[in-house]
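Case 668 in the screening queue. Each case pairs one protein sequence with one candidate compound; here the compound is molybdenum atom. For every case the pipeline is the same: read the inputs, emit a complex structure as tokens, and attach any notable structural observations.

Predict complex for case 668.
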Amino acid sequence: MAKVYQSACPLNCWDSCGFHVTIEENKVIKVDGDPAHPITKGKICGRGRMLETRTNSPQRLLYPLKKINGEFQQISWKQALDEISNKLKDIKETYGSKAVFHSHDYANNGILKNLDQRFFNCYGGVTEIVGSLCWGAGIEAQGWDFGEAWSHEPNDVLNSKNIVIWGRNVTRTNMHFFEKLQEAKKQGAKVFVIDPIYNATAKMADEYISIKPGMDGLLAAGIMKEILRLSLEDRKFIDSFTYGFDDVLVLLNGITLEKLSKMTEVPIEVMTRLAKVFADKPTAVFMGLGMQRYENGGNSVRLIDALVAISGNIGIAGGGANYANRQVGQSFAFDELTLADRKQQHRQFPIMKQAEEILTAKNPAIQMIVVTCGNPLTQVPDSNTVSKAFASVPTLVVIEQFMTDTAKLADYVLPTTTVFEEEDFYYSSMYHHYVNYGPKLVDAPGEAKSDLWIWTQLAERLGFGEEFHLTRDQFFAMALKPLEEKGITIEKLKEEQTVELPVKMIPWQDRKFKTPSGKFEFTSTLERLKGNSGLLKLSVPDESKWSNPDLANRYPYQLLTIHPLRSNHSQNYQVWKQTPKLKVEVAQNIATHLQLEEGDYVRIWNDRGEVKGYVSILQKSHPNVINIDEGIWKEFGGSVNNLTSSRPSDNELGSTLYDCLVNIGKIN
Ligand SMILES: Nc1nc2c(c(=O)[nH]1)N[C@H]1C(S)=C(S)[C@@H](COP(=O)(O)OP(=O)(O)OC[C@H]3O[C@@H](n4cnc5c(=O)[nH]c(N)nc54)[C@H](O)[C@@H]3O)O[C@H]1N2
Ligand SMILES: Nc1nc2c(c(=O)[nH]1)N[C@H]1C(S)=C(S)[C@@H](COP(=O)(O)OP(=O)(O)OC[C@H]3O[C@@H](n4cnc5c(=O)[nH]c(N)nc54)[C@H](O)[C@@H]3O)O[C@H]1N2
Ligand code: SF4
Ligand SMILES: [Mo]
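Case 668 output:
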């Protein structure tokens, strides 16, 4: 008989939903939203529902595989684990543990997924990833300005008079925030959307502001100039709680509004109107992550933070420079979980540059790559170099559920469980502050095993098995230790399914910032201490007519590769009912200029690579913009990351995935 159980979404997503999962005879039948979950309220997206299809898919990896003479052959777990652990032993003895590179991302937001780091730390410390393709530039930027990237709790938006959605594709990527927006709008709040693409959120907005990609910092500067000209700034906040305001004045006085309007391609009267909106408090800004995936991404977020600060919208109900909420992740005891103090050796590769670093690494060169919770061949920029790098290493081990582009390249593929086949608890530091519990509901198919089982088996063979001789409950308790005194335990989480974390609901209400000066910093003292200027800049993307006119002549169009509607990155394309096709969305002016029609087959290229796909015309988007949704597999026409650049952002910790010029032509 079918029975419904509570569970949780593991996907890397803003919303971290609670689930109702129907199980019949050890099989997942249906995945729905948990009506009792405070954010989910019974509604989930297609990606969540498709976890049923993914779990039951005949394409699931079921047995350990080893590549022999270019072909995968099924081997036993014993053979796979013995061979991999022997290689790990030999590598450590001969080259040192740093000769192993751990390539990972955050495909699964379970707390126990962090135990991969426990394994590699106990092994002796490996070459690790630093930075993030996803949100790195903005997190670092808010670290400089506030001392931390913290957001307001979801319901606080109902206190806002004005809500500015700055480059977040809310309807598509953050659906439960969209519901809150609708509620706020019903109560009379005005919604503004700043985005180069006229997306579904823009359609519901009171005003859509079309902007040239990568120019958000300059728009913030223009609005600040108007706020100051009209004397709308919050003098009290600036004088009492900020540092470096004189530097902002110097910066803004060095450029005219006309120039800012020309560069952002936003009319001056819009800047004036937005100045008044920011002064009509409380005004909340909700930044997305797309707009910081540019060379100037960190600086763009800093200029938006500065705008929110001078208008006095920080630390007040209904205000805020909302980006991510790191308070959530900071609630757990990661050092104990990962045994951070156990590593003896240590080396870091920036996540963007992992391919180049692998190809050039010396002392030691990379001998083995282990991939967990990631699909770097599809998701990391400059795929052609990534392919070359991952193919160049003697041993590539990929722990996966599906035969992805990365898995295809592997020497060993180890089949792993999906969310409903193991117990964990799930959280996301992107939007809300609730943690969800997910029990084991069904057995894994074939011989698929959890990541934790794999680490435990390898640890036994490498002589540190005792560090994994803990039950899941013991690991959970370890992670939740800092919350114990507030009454949050694994027992409570199991009983209540969803628990609210004790975070600050309105950050910076006490005006005590986590910066070295204790103030909001327009000029970063943290950066000054490192010998840098720490000043805000009026910077532009690396690939633009303002910074590289020759390149812009050859490649006149800006390529965005935003997140797909019906897939979480590369995770869902293979289970769609219809075979995916690469869709090339082009601005109307490009279509007119090149006489492109809906459905035309086109090539998009730059010096790094090319892809081919079918035209779809974007209505009302900013001129000269092309979009191809990210994540599509090679066999369906991908990867779009053939075209993107591996340069890091201005503060080194973010990506420049959308800072990408291309050309386009029809294939006859
Ligand atoms: N459906 C779906 N939802 C997802 C995911 C998914 O893969 N699919 N992934 C999840 C993850 S990991 C993340 S990081 C989040 C990302 O969530 P979002 O930040 O919402 O998504 P992005 O696709 O990165 O880009 C968002 C918006 O930024 C706009 N944009 C691009 N460049 C600029 C610019 O220069 N200026 C401005 N103002 N806007 C710009 C794009 O047009 C797009 O509307 O989504 C999460 N949710
Ligand atoms: N061009 C372009 N590139 C992008 C982006 C973009 O906007 N444009 N977005 C970037 C962003 S925001 C992000 S977050 C990254 C995401 O990059 P990734 O996290 O690498 O992307 P996913 O497609 O989610 O791939 C994760 C893989 O992990 C596997 N997996 C799922 N669960 C588990 C598990 O429990 N254990 C193990 N071992 N494996 C599991 C899945 O099957 C999947 O193949 O991509 C980045 N890349
Ligand atoms: S992918 Fe996001 S919105 Fe969809 S079910 Fe999972 S957490 Fe909810
Ligand atoms: Mo992300």
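Case 668 observations:
- The mean pLDDT is 97.
- The longest helix spans residues 77-95.
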